[in-house]
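Board notes (copied after class):
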Amino acid sequence: MGLSPRRHAAYRVGVDDERREGADAGASGATDHSTVRVTMFVRGRVQGVGFRWWTRARALELDLAGHARNMNDGRVEVVAQGRPEAVEALEALLREVPSTTRRPGHVESVVVQQGVPRDGISGFVER
């Protein structure tokens, strides 16, 4: 279920960038360099079908922190922070066709933006 080596490298680049930023910027961002943070914008029939609940359940199984929230334009924003392999696994589950985990609704696309990990984030909630 893993992502392509290129995608995996993108998550690793984010980790390496965070190391450089932490060394250059002092106390900005998380101190655990094995942690990544991404924001995923999921488009499709993903509101009003239990998609956020399903996403929260998968994220908790993967020991990720963050949230899933409905956006005004019909997308769901998923913010996930944790081990790179776990974040990759959640993204793969969001993209998986057909879903092997009974994902509700229908996902048309997932756009991923890398972020900087934040300290003190725990749990995964629906907003």
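Comment from the instructor: Residues 5-126 form a domain with the Alpha-Beta Plaits fold (CATH 3.30.70.100). The chain has one domain: 5-126.
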